[in-house]
Structures are given as C-alpha cells and as structure tokens.
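Q: Hi! First time doing this. I have a protein sequence and I read that you can turn it into a structure. Is that right? Here it is:
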Amino acid sequence: MQTHTVTTPVGRRPMTLALVKVQLDAAEIPAGKSAQKWKVFRDACEARSLLGVQDRSLAVLNALLTFYPHNDLTEERGLVVFPSNAQLSIRAHGIAGTTLRRHLAALVDAGLISRKDSPNGKRYAHRDRSGEVENAFGFSLAPLLARAEELAQMAQEVAEIRRRYLMTKEALSTCRRDVRKLISAAVEEGQDGDWPALEDRYRGLAATIPRSSTTGDLQPLLEEMEMLRDEVVNCLKSQIDLKKTNANDVHYDHHKQNSNTESINELEPSFETQQAATPVAEPQPVQPAVRPEPPKAFPLGMVLKACPDIADYGPGGAISSWRELMTAAVVVRSMLGVSPSAYQEACEVLGPENAAVAVACILERAGHINSPGGYLRDLTRRAARGEFSLGPMLMALMRTGGPARRAAS
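A: Yes, that's right. Below is the predicted 3D structure, encoded as structure tokens:
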C-alpha cells in the first residue's frame, strides 16, 4: 500500500488550495474501501453538468481507467496509473496532444484525479524484486474512490432534475395542445366568445418558450398556459350549460303544446260533418311566419381581423355590420370573376353570411388562387357533403398574419 502525501506539480503548473484539499481527502480513505470503477465513471458522466467537465474530458478519464488493471478501485492494489501521452491519446480515440493535456488539467481541477509527479515529470513506477509496484508516478485515481458516494448522490440529483424538467416540458406540451384544439373547435362550431383575443394570448405565450430551457424557465409558462386553458374551458362550459337550458325550455314548451287535447287535427272531422248544417265564420287570414335571421357562425370582428382586405370594399372603406359585409362581398365577387350562379349556390348551401365570409377569405388569398369561381364552387360542394367548415380557414388566416400584412401595406 502506498503512503499518501501532499505533492506539488512539476514545472510551471501552480499549486492551489483546492488541489491540496483533494489530496488530503484522498489520504483519508477508510481502510478496505473499494468501488467498482465503471460504476463510479458512470456516476461522473451523469453528474457532468454539476462537475463542470466536458464530454471529451470524460473520454480521457475513461482512457485512464482502462490502464487500471483491476475492476475495483482499492488502496491495497494501488491507485496510480502512469501511461504515456502517446498511449493515452490512442485509447482516447486519437485525441491531439495539446487537447489531451487541457482535458487532463480539467479533470484535476474538477477533483476527479490528482497528479503525482516524479522529480522530472515523467510517469513511471518502481517495482520490487517480485515485480510488485512499490511507488508510481503519474495520475492518482484516489479522488474517484474518495468521492464515490458523493458522485453517486450527484448523479441521482441530476437524474431528478432531468425528470422534473421532462415532466414540466411534457405538461406544457400537453397544455399547449389542449388550448390550441379547444380554441379551434370553438371557432369551427361558431361558439360565442372572444376567441381572437384568447388566440393572441396563446400565441404570445408560445412565442416566449425558449429553445434551450430549464425547469425554472418552463414552470411560470406552464402556470400561465394552464390558467389560459381553464379560461377557455370555462367559456365552453358556459356555452354548453346555456344550450342545455335552452333545450330544456324548448322541451317544456313542446310539452305544453302537446297537452292541448283540442288540436286542429281532432277538430277537422267535426268541421267537415257540420259544414252543411251550420254556417261557419270566415276564417281569419293567416299571417306569414317571419323567417328568423340565420345565425352568425363567427363574430364579425374575428372575420374582419382574419380578412382585413374586404373592408376596402365596404361603404366608406369600412365595414361595421353583416349587411355591409354581404354588400362588399357582392362587389368582390364581381371583381374576382365569380359567376352569380356560383355565389348564389354558396349562399344556398352556406347561408348568405357564411358565403360572404368565404368570399372575404378568397380575396385574402387571391394571389394563390387561380380560379376564384371554381374554388368557391369546390368549397360549396365540400360543405354540402359536410367535408368543409370556415373555422379552420379563418384561424389559418389569423395565424399567417392577416393583420400584419394589412399594417405593412
């Protein structure tokens, strides 16, 4: 067994108190202590970020360990290896000499190895008559043995940091997907709500996610994204509750109407049998039922935000109502060369308001559409088969920066 003493480096390399501490800690290794060298090496690789060493430095450490002939690090068998730079470079995958010396110094500074220099700086060993090493000069692996438990704890700490980071990153990705799809579903199905503002908030949060991040960077963004998701869900929940209430009211009204036992169907036979005997008062003229206004599938503000170019064709260069939007759509339809029959068919299938929205979308992408009339007919046929909805088209225009193009022009 070799006796531990504090040694200083040869040549112009300075001695520091940190190097003294590493050698003193290695001198206090308990008797009989041993550690599996490759397990210690794996722990050092896991704790690389905490140790502040690069992967090339760990490759050099791996090469040094290959010169230690035993699998377990123990003081009884000696802990000094003494390969030449040429041999070490070969086992470190041909690393250059200057690079090798730099990474050896990094390992020493990190407290993973220590130098035991000879008087002339050469690396060699003195052997006894039986061939056993009595004293060796080179690199001591004693710091690895002394810090085996510390390196294992550091590796576990790094693994826990990585686990928390992955969980936070996965939660943020899931939350982003939820918000994105919930807003798209609400817009596509025409739910009431300030969906453009929520979309802008989502895009603002997504833009602040850094490419290289830590758990501390992602946690505040996750909390804000979860708050946005809760707000979207609450908006949709209120819409669902409102629809349930309206459905119950309609069901109750129908129930009251059906409870009337003197329906017109039951009175018709009696009217026919008594027509000749009893004069009947002249029936009052029936007022024609007022056709309800078709519901607006999307907020007008959202349509104008996604398709700002249509506003130039409104009265006075602005649009403030659905009627003005439909009037502007007729002008744009003629300008784009869309036939009256194609536009009429779109109005019948999509409704007048949605047909005007479709024309506004086509105007926004006029530079990419060869035949606006044929494109509108194709959208109409797909909508009739239930294969097309204006919601995704509007959201796509909002994401591609319709307002930004408008401001730039």
